[in-house]
Amino acid sequence: MKFFYSINPYDQQVLEEHPVMDAAAVGDALAAAEKGWQHWKALTPARRAPYLLAFARQLEQNKEDYARLMAREMGKVLREGRAEIEKCIVACRYFAEQAESFLADEEVPSEATRSWISYEPLGVILGIMPWNFPFWQVLRAAVPALMAGNAFLLKHAPNVCQCSKALEHAFREAGMPEGVFQSLIIDTDLTETVLAHPVVRGVTLTGSERAGSAVAALAGKHIKKTVLELGGSDPFIVLEDAPLAEAAAVALQSRMQNAGQSCIAAKRLVITERIYDDFVQALLDGLQQYRQGNPLDSDITTGPMARLDLADKLEDQQNRSVALGAHVLAGGQRQGCNYAPTLLDAVTPLQPAFTEELFGPVGVLIRVRDEEQAVALANQSAYGLGATIWTADRQRGERLARRLECGGVFINSLMRSDVRFPFGGMKRSGYGRELGRYGMLEFVNIKTIYIN
After folding, report:
1. R_g of the chain computed on alpha carbons
2. Would you tell me the crossing angle of helices 276-287 and 244-256 to the nearest 10 degrees?
3. What does CATH list as the number for 235-418?
4. 263 among known catalytic residues
5. Which of 88, 92, 161, 263 is catalytic?
6. In the CATH scheme, what is the code of domain 3-230+429-451?
7. Residue spans per domain, the chain
8. What does pTM read for this prediction?
9. Residue 86 annotated as catalytic
10. For residue range 269-305, what is the model confidence (pLDDT) as tens digits?
C-alpha cells in the first residue's frame, strides 16, 4: 500500500501517514458523489445556504485548531492561519447570502411569450488544490460551486492530507449530505479515472504550469470544463510620486506573507529610478522587523517553506540569477526549509529572478527610468495574474492599470483575492475565474428557455 506523509517543514518530523486510495475506493467515492449530487441539485439556493452557514460555524469554532494544523503541516505562522480561516468564513457567508440573486432566472426581452436564461448546476466538480493556502484555496473554489448546486471532490496536495481530511470532517459535522463534499487521497494515476467519470462535469486546478497543462489535456480529452489558476510573477510598480513608507510596508507584506508562497505576491518590485534608493532603503529598514522561525511561536513573522524540494528550487533560482549579475542585498541563506527573507538587487530580464516565478520569500528589485519602461517590463512576462501600482495620482494609476496584461490591478493597495470580485489571470497564469458572480457561473449550465 502506498502512503502520503504529513511532514513538519520546520523540523522535518513525520506527523502522520495517509493510505492512498485504490481504484475500488475511488469508485465508491464517485458513486457517493453521484447519489449526493442528485439530492443536492434539487435543493434551492435558499435551502443549500444553511449547510454552508453551519460549515462556517464549524470553521469559527475550530479556528485555533486549524491554524495550528496549518502551522505544523505546511509552515504557516499562526496569525496568518487564523486570518486564512476568517477569510474562509467570510466566503461561506457571502455566497450563502448572494447565491439566490446570482443564480436567479434572467429575463431576456424577445418576441416570445417569455424567454429567459436559467443557471443550473453542472454535476460533480473535481478540485485539484495546492498546499500554500490549504483551506482558502479549496473553499474559494468549492463554496460557490456547492452553492450553485454542484458536488465537489477534493484532490488536495499530498503534503496537506491532514488539512484535506479536516475540511471533509467539518462539512460532515455541519450536516452536509453524504457524498456532496469528499476528500480524495489519491495519486496522479487515478486522476484521469475521476476526471473521465460521466458524473464529473468540470475540474478546477490551482497549481503549477506543468500541472495545469496536464490537467487541461486530460479535461480536453474527456471534454470537461476547466478553470486554471497557475500562479504568476506579479509586478509591484512604484512611481516617483508614491507614498514611499506605505508602499514599502505593503511590498514587504505582499512578498513575505506565507513565507513568500503566494501566487499573487509582489514578486517583481518595479521602481522608478528617481526614488529607487530611498525605496530600497525603506525595504531594508522594514525587513529588520521580520523574524523567521518555528511557525507555532507567536512572535515569528515568517515560517519555513512547505517542502525541501521547494526550498531547493528557490535557492537554485537565486544562485543562477546571482551568477548572471543580481546582488543579494539581504538574506539569501537557508537551512532546510527555513529560507531567510531575501532581497535581490540589479535584476534584469535575462535572469531567472525576472523570467520565472519565485515561490518563496525572495523579493526582486528592478530599476526603471519612468512609467513607460515600468509598464513595458511589467508586461514582459509569460504570466498575467495580478499587478499593483503605487502613485499619488489616481487618474495616472487608472490609465496605467488599463495597459497592464493581467487579471486584476490594485492601485495603492495590497493585491489580494476578495470574495466580491472575480479572481484569475491570463497568458500562462491560466484562464477562468473564481469568486464573485463570475466565479459562481463558471460551473453552471447557462440554459436558454424560450416559450412561444
Report:
1. 22
2. 50
3. 3.40.309.10
4. yes
5. 263
6. 3.40.605.10
7. 3-230+429-451, 235-418
8. 0.97
9. no
10. 999 999 999 999 999 999 999 999 999 998 899 999 9
